[in-house]
UniProtKB/TrEMBL annotation:
Protein's name in the database: Flp pilus assembly protein TadD, contains TPR repeats
SMART domains linked: TPR
Annotated source species: Insolitispirillum peregrinum
SUPFAM superfamilies noted in UniProt: TPR-like, UDP-Glycosyltransferase/glycogen phosphorylase
Top-rank lineage group of the source organism: Bacteria
A GO term for molecular function: glycosyltransferase activity
Amino acid sequence: MNITELLAEADARAAKGQIPLAEAFYRQVLDQIPLHPAALFGLGRLALERADPAQAEAFLAGAVRGMPAHPAYRVYHGMALRQLDLLDQAIITFQAAIRLVPDAVQPWLGLIDCLLARQDWPQARAMIGQAQQQGVTVAPLLTVLGQGLARAGLTGEAEQAYGEAISMAPAEQPAWLARASLYLKNRQLDEALRDARQAVALDGGDARALVVLAAVLRAHQDLAGAIAAARQAVKLSPRLVDACAELGTLLHQAGEDAEGVTHLLAAHHMAPHRLDIAYNLAACFMAAEDYPQAGQLYRQCVEAKPDWRDACTNLGVALLRQGRLSEAECLLQQAVAIPEDVDAAGKPEARYNLAWVQLLQGNFRAGWQNYEARWDLPDFSSPRRPLPVPRWSGEADPALHLLLHAEQGLGDSIQMMQLVALARQRVGRVTLEVPPALYRLALSLAGVDQVVAADLSDPARLPVPCDAHAPLMSLPLLLGVGLSDLPRATAYLNAPAPTSALCLPDSPLPRVGFVWAGSPHNKIDRYRTIPWTLFAPLTAGTGCAPWSLQWAPQPPEGINSCMVAVKDMADTASVIAQLDLVVGVDTAVLHLAAAMGRPAWMLIPFAPDYRWLATGDGSPWYPSLRLFRQQRSGAWADVVAEVRHALSGWVSEWRPGRIG
């Protein structure tokens, strides 16, 4: 090919988004004519497109030197200088372009944008007047003025500038689009939707307008509509970074993380320095449990912005999920320490996750203190109770009537019931409020003067007259309990006699209860629940009589169950009391078995719940509990094989009447 053909091919490839091929053809031109202005210009434009203004400036400066009278070369060179914040040089470059083509809008746009970057509003307005005298259509200039004012936080003035542009030229699509973005930022969602739809109507082929429409629809909670708009934007402009990023983020929100990763990866490759894209891509990897990849991206965000609290917190969580607790604690401490006037959002989340790391390492003093941040989480499962009596601070007062109330899950309440007797030693009377499912079971607990079933239809209502209250999960903090201070009671809950429907038949084999799934409403259930197909080998071929402790209308084939007759946790306790061993995942049933002093084996994930500590096969909370830990995240098959081997050995040594 000759030079003309090479340039034509390069331009065609660039127009189709085939950037590497376009660059290759431009470089072939430079191989023949090293300083060819058109080739340098083409490479400069491509560098601007991939957000590399430094390289763009070098190419475009060469193009201008080779052909100083070419206005487009000067305009693009000015754009590169502007992106590098070299405002004085950019202004000189745009002024030179204006002298070449005084009636062209593009150099005026660049000049006014530079003046706005200096926040020189009067001079920017004056330039709009001069441009109008030269016959330039000023609606685009007013739009740029509005964008500069919006960046400076002058939203009223920005809205006025956009309004002027639209009044002068109702078909000025960029003004509608910019005003839609302004309204979206100000949460004026109806106005934003109106303007975004108008921008798309004026130019349905503008992918950027579709991206803004997608963002507005997302704010309107119309996820399906937002995804459709973003898909159309990507279809129109596959290399538009914002289109790929918006679609990937929307798909992540819709739970379609695999496809979301594809689009966010494309955006990240095109704009590797965009922290918002790296952050959202990391969120997709977190959802896919690819914690090393997520951590790498969050680290990029933290290194670029050390005071970005959410990025620090999420990096800490990614490290926690990899078992790198010391590093996780450092990052979470960093997140907590960021001043609120620097980053006001996310401190409760940082403290809550820090509590998990500290408690996993046995640091009860700091961990339980930070665990109190749960009350400030926006989506915490047990909102703070606005009760009309003071919260107990742990002080000793023999005249005090203390209300202890349950929170979170049944397992949490069962675990903390063992501390109620310690609280009772400090006060005159304790009333324990528990969910109805725990009411009959709690009647067997020592150290309680009265048990009431919770009725949370009015969370502010006291179930009984009292002097102070405390949530059960705050007892370790209020009592100053450390690892060595736990009661280590062999059994503190007792089962009632079973009803006839719950009496298990005699068996010459050891009776073993199994539970493999927790509540699907629990946020971390996907980490603890084991699919039945993986868990099933534990229930067959080990020489035991298997009994399901899973609440389900129909147990899987080959396993006995009477759970259809179970009405509450006291009934479950009646069944457990007849078993020789309970094996299962981290659920209330395992807590109950251990609280009754029954032998219990728990299969826990690689990054376990904070209460099981980071290492060891025993629990300081429950002497009869044995832990089987994942050695790799998600690797349940290995744990099941280990438990199956241990169960076979246990069965071979079992004798009737023996416990454990």
